[in-house]
Amino acid sequence: YNINNTWLCITVPESVVKGETNWDYVHLRPCTINDPLQRWIRKRQFLLDSR
After folding, report:
1. Residue 3: pLDDT above 70?
2. Which of 2, 1, 5, 9 is nearest to 36 (CA)?
3. 49, exposed or middle or buried, with CB in 10 Å at 0-12, 13-18, 19+?
4. Could you read off the pLDDT of 7-45 as tens digits, one per residue?
5. Which comes out higher in pLDDT, residue 13 or 49?
6. pLDDT score for 23
7. In this structure, what DSSP letter does residue 13 have?
8. Which residues have CB under 8 Å from 11's CB, separation 6+?
9. Whole-structure pTM value
10. Cα torsion for 9, 34, 32, 8, to the nearest 10°?
11. Which residue from 25, 23, 30 is spatially nearest to 9, judged by alpha carbons?
């Protein structure tokens, strides 16, 4: 998303990626290259984290 001339990406909390919790709310953070917390798989109308 481009908000106020800043690109923000959907980011999953690290606790979800590490398996410490099953789900949490996503955050919008500035986009970065090769951030594993910003990797997503789109399947039909769903977004799945890439773990």
Report:
1. yes
2. 9
3. middle
4. 999 888 888 878 888 778 889 999 999 888 888 888 888
5. 13
6. 78
7. -
8. 26, 27, 28, 29, 35, 37, 38
9. 0.67
10. 0
11. 30
- C-alpha distances (whole Å) from 46 to each of 4, 32, 33, 40, 41 are 27, 22, 23, 10, 8
Residues 6+ apart with CB under 8 A from 31: 7, 8, 9, 38
* 9-24 core/surface letters (b: 16 or more CB in 10 A; e: else): bebbbeebeeeeeeee
pLDDT of residue 2: 95
Q: Look at residue 37 and give its three-state secondary structure.
A: helix
pLDDT for the residue 51: 60
Domains of the chain, by residue range, sit at: 2-49
